[in-house]
Amino acid sequence: MKNKKGSDLNISASAIETFRDCQRKWYFGYVERIRGPKSPAAERGDKIHDLAERYLKGEVDPEALEGEDAKWFRYLMPGLEYAPTPGQVAADGWGVEDWVKEPCGPLNFVGKVDFYNVSLDDGPVICDWKTTGNAQWRWSKTPEQLAGFLQPHVYAYSLLKDNPPDTVSFQHVNLQSRGRPDAMQVWANEVPWEHIEQTWETVKDISHQMATIAKANETAETVNPNTKACKKFGGCEHADICSASPRNRATPHIPNYTPGVTMATNSNETQDKMAALRARLGIGKAKPAITPEPTPAPEPAPAPAKRSAKEQVLEVLQKADFVPAPVMEWIAGDESEQVAKEIGLTLQDNKWVKAAKPEEFSDWGMPVRQYNKENGTASIPNNARVVAGLLVPVSFDGTTQEAVEMWGTD
Hints:
17% strand; alpha+beta; globular
């Protein structure tokens, strides 16, 4: 299968992450191949990764480095104690920055493994450099998270499927990319091979979904967006050309792009098209065409009934996540408190706030300042509270130190 530029449409760990965040963003970047400029963090990470590759391959003399290379090698140096030496790489069967390519459903999985060794006495290891600008290692994986992380699983499968071991170990070497150079390693030891096979089956399912969506849509504008991801990682790189982005929803202005008609997720035409594609891909049966019944002529609408205070508040809530207390009193009068509690609002900072369901927020450990910045509000979810500047479950009754240990380095 080809993308819009005529090259192979592949699946990768980063493509899967993007697809899970927002299918329209994935279509922009991987099917239409529209890419925005790299973030400063990504630029720093690329420079450090490039130096790490050249160093492990014996192509860099640290004492002879100058300029930019010398600057970025300072950030790599603390992590070298957690990696093989160039001599070990040359003599002990280490692979460095090797590409893997493996058929995975209708698409090929491709990826580049930072460094690995499949012939160690203690069992194979898959290793990855990770760079961050957060001095508290907030975005670093815990051992439990690394053990279930998709990326090393698919690398391990691609490298070891022909002679699978009982277990595989994963390593992340985390490097600071700004401020004071520092490093921290995380290990997930002896991950069972059956877990890796299960992950591969999940990736095959995602590959089928990607192929189906790529075939069913001519432009990204007909792919379902996830507007909750618009502000993630500092904002979507496709915000200027996506009609679903916050900047284009109110006054659409999409330069250099002609969108198609937005595809309704529940339309019969769309369902038929998707079902037929799934059938051709062998992942479902085609749905028979549906002939809509004639719509009877509408009867004259009755005069609208007078709405209660509760109904008026519900209408306001459909357009906002909270109702300022003065507005509530203006709508509901003397019954404002009774009406608010009846429809599940709670009073916070002189605002009646919509109660959050438990599943509506689960990114525990996020700094409250970051949450407020991303969500443009001074309130927090009702199922969360603040401890040591971090959002934690409202049911958490531990100490500040316990909160920091549990979530502060997540």
